[in-house]
């Protein structure tokens, strides 16, 4: 049902929407920086969770270094 939102709900939706947009931008920038994480690259095929986690953590670390320099 279409029920009008309260002021509190509207404010929450606005904050959450801004946060979600920021997160989507970070993921997009990360995938364009680290091609291994992008959809245009063949997927990382491993059944070893530790290896995948290491790759992901290294990308996150390098991304944080990049952001700190900007």
What proportion of the residues form beta strands (DSSP E)? under 5%
Give the overall form: elongated
What's the SSE pattern? HH
Mean pLDDT: 84
Which percent range fits the helix content?
55-70%
Number of helices: 2
* Secondary-structure content class: mainly alpha
Outline the low-pLDDT stretches: none
Major beta-sheet overview: none
How far apart the termini lie comes to 46 Å
- Number of E-type strands: 0
Backbone CA Rg: 18 Å
Notes on the structure:
69% of the residues lie in helices and 0% in strands. The model has no long low-confidence stretch (mean pLDDT 84). It is mainly alpha-helical and 70 residues long. 0% of the residues are buried. The chain is built from two helices and no strands.
Short summary of the structure?
The chain contains two helices and no strands.
Which helices and strands, and how do they pair?
Blueprint: H1 7-33, H2 49-69
Keywords:
mainly alpha; 2 helices; 70 residues
């Amino acid at each position: 049902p279409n029920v009008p939102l309260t002021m509190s709900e509207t404010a929450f939706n606005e904050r959450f929407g801004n946060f979600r947009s920021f997160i989507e931008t970070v993921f997009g920038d990360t995938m364009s920086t680290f091609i291994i994480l992008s959809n245009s690259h063949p997927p990382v095929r491993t059944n070893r969770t530790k290896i995948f986690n290491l790759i992901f953590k290294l990308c996150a670390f390098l991304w944080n270094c990049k952001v700190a320099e900007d």
